[in-house]
């Protein structure tokens, strides 16, 4: 066991973020345990210290230790620590390369800053729903070992003049204080063009505030804005982002990879890929993955370990039917139609 003084020293070194002191105290605790008949714990503690030193020498990035946002920020941002990696995603080569370059620059940001340069960190993701934009933010957080800070737009945007801009200010202040990946999903709610015919003065003020905050932001946080409607965004926004990454519906190769990844624990039989990819045409990545899961459930309930091609075609067709029905309902809800 650690002595009272050793425990206090551990807490002080952790609060001061003095890693070397923290390791030194841990080794003292290891020696104390070895002396008092607990060699196994002592050896485990020494191993953990050596692993910590190896990671520090390799420059492994460390996430800011946040349990959850507090104060005014608590209602505006939700924090999580994803384990998602870029290798978990099925993306076109050009997007995969863009994202890998961003991660590499983040890992080498101190080296870049020593030469008066900054890593790319302000990203605009555009494309159809379900094609991986939100998952990309999680993967960037996972790769950089940072918290994913999901900005709650329903709490951010209010009807009271000036209140939304004030809340945006709180979020951007948090970016400077707490390094993380800050995701503004459904970003068109903020970034819609100021020339829109249905625009109101408050929305224009919110967008102007966002543009100003983005211009001034020089934090180490990664800002990710995602939208399904690139045509709705104000032109001035594009100059504030370092990268605009465009997502598309999966092609035949991506459809096949998604299915094979989801069904890796099953045997595929009677597979005719042209028929399967034709059935998946028009579906997003998420819908293809869910259709594969539907087929897997049917196989499990039938007590077999094989997923047949015709079952996959049927599952894809069912998903396409669901999508068509959803669009139909959406059209019926529109006024004057």
TrEMBL record:
Q: Which InterPro entries does this UniProt record tie to the protein?
A: AAA+_ATPase, AAA_ATPase_domain, ATPase_AAA_core, P-loop_NTPase
The AAA+ ATPase domain is annotated at 119-251
Which Pfam families did the record assign?
A: AAA (PF00004)
CDD domains per the UniProt record, alphabetical: RecA-like_protease (cd19481)
Recorded GO MF terms: ATP binding; ATP hydrolysis activity
Q: Which Gene3D superfamilies match?
A: P-loop containing nucleotide triphosphate hydrolases
This protein's name: ATPase
* Protein's organism: Gemmata obscuriglobus
């Amino acid at each position: 066991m650690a002595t009272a003084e050793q425990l206090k020293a551990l807490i002080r070194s952790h609060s001061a973020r003095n890693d070397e002191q923290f390791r030194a105290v841990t080794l003292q605790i290891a020696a104390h345990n070895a002396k008092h008949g607990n060699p196994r714990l002592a050896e485990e503690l020494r191993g953990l210290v050596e692993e910590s030193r190896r990671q520090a020498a390799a420059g492994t990035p460390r996430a800011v230790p946040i349990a959850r946002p507090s104060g005014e920020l608590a209602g505006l941002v939700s924090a999580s620590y994803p384990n998602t990696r870029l290798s978990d995603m099925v993306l076109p080569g050009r997007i995969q390369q863009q994202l890998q370059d961003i991660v590499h620059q983040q890992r080498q940001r101190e080296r870049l800053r020593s030469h008066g340069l900054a890593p790319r960190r302000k990203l605009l993701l555009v494309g159809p729903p379900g094609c991986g934009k939100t998952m990309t933010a999680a993967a960037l957080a996972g790769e950089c070992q940072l918290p994913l800070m999901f900005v709650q737009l329903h709490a951010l945007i209010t009807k009271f003049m000036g209140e939304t801009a004030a809340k945006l200010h709180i979020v951007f202040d948090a970016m400077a204080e707490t390094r993380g990946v800050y995701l503004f999903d459904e970003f068109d709610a903020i970034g819609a063009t100021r020339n829109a015919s249905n625009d109101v003065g408050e929305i224009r003020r919110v967008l102007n505030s966002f543009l100003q905050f983005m211009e001034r932001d020089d934090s180490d946080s990664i800002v990710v804005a995602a939208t399904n409607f690139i045509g709705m965004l104000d032109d001035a926004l594009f100059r504030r982002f370092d990268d605009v990454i465009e997502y598309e519906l999966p092609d035949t190769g991506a459809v096949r990879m998604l299915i094979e990844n989801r069904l890796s624990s099953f045997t595929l039989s009677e597979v005719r890929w042209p028929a399967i990819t034709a059935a998946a045409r028009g579906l997003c990545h998420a819908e293809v993955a869910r259709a594969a899961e539907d087929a897997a459930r049917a196989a499990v309930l039938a007590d077999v370990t094989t997923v047949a091609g015709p079952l996959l075609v049927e599952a894809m067709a069912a998903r396409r039917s669901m999508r068509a029905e959803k669009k139909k309902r959406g059209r019926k809800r529109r006024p004057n139609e």
